[in-house]
Amino acid sequence: MPELVGFKVLKRPSDKPSKPLVSIVIPVYNEEGLLQTSIVNLVEDMKRFDFAYEIVITENGSKDATVSIAHSLAERFPMIRVLSSSEPNYGRALKKGILEAHGTYVICDEIDITDTDFYRRALQKLVDEGYDLVVGSKLHPDARDKRPPFRKAATKVINLMLRVMLDFHGTDTHGLKAFNRERLLAVVNRCVVERDMFASELVIRAERELRVTEIPVEIVEKRQPSINLVRRVPHVLKNIAKLYLAFRLNR
Fold first, then answer.
1. What's the rounded Cα separation, in Å, for the pair 35 and 52?
2. SS3 content of the chain, % helix, strand, coil (to 5)
3. Distance between CA atoms of residues 180 and 211, nearest Å
4. pLDDT, tens only, 90-115
5. Is the Cα torsion angle 42, 38, 183, 215 positive or negative in sign?
């Protein structure tokens, strides 16, 4: 039997709803080794819920079999849609998925996480408590971050930079997020950076205008990052500087 999660408005209206209530947006890049298993497991885990949903796989510039696997999953499962971009750009892929999502609520997930317990807790905050955005924080005091020390240290460094340069008040901007799509659309459309920093800009802008909260998550790394962390540094620094200027000019 599907799990009743407490938020009364999230109920499946029919076997073939015209519009899902929840869109799960997952950017992917060169994930042929993980995509099939993660999505099949996610579809199985979603049986615990009694609401209509879609999974939006937003692929960006993959050079392996990711695209063909994604389309085969879409043929197998009617709730899956596939979007494609021509170049590796996480932020652009995530933004595209959000803009083309059909659900009232959007959950931004990662292919190596797919944490349905976060879905349950985040939707509770959105529906029952009226928050606009819920961030799954790896740095929350109650979080269980099981990533390697280097990756945890990198998260803390970026978070410190966001606090100092952009007056961010939270503890995390990357990873799992859930939000009311209609309330976040204006924020999404004002974002000026892409790649790794789009998610940070989205959270920081939302924090300044809307009701945002954080909840702890457990992170277990299932594979090495698809893009080398050191190679990300120049893009991160460039985009933080761009955001600093944009915020100073109230853009």
1. 22
2. 45, 20, 40
3. 11
4. 999 999 999 999 999 999 999 999 99
5. positive
